[in-house]
Amino acid sequence: MSNLFWLTYEQMERLKPFFPKSHGKPRVDDRRVLNRIIFINRSGLRWCDAPREYGPPKTLYNRWKRWSDMGVFARMMEGLASEGGEEKVVMIDATYLKAHRTASSLRAKKGGPSISAGA
Length: 119
Prior knowledge:
By secondary structure, this protein is an all-alpha fold. Helices cover about 45% and strands about 0% of the residues.
């Protein structure tokens, strides 16, 4: 499959300090696991529907769950956002931000301030 997502080795080097230490048996390749987690989150697929090149779904889900519970992803985002000091600009790709089309009407029905296009 040519449309698989792969972090470069340079990008993985930047992320390496945020991974938990391996205790005992060596872990499955962190790069392959993280690439699948990103691929799943970007595409909205179920774990079992991602390409086999990323490895077994159960291993990847378990790693995602464990790392999420440990705060690994939050530390990655905070660490990457703080690199470069205060002058660094953080940009968000709006194609991955989604809001339900009725969100503004639901807020108004619950008594909260309504959101208007001109505000």
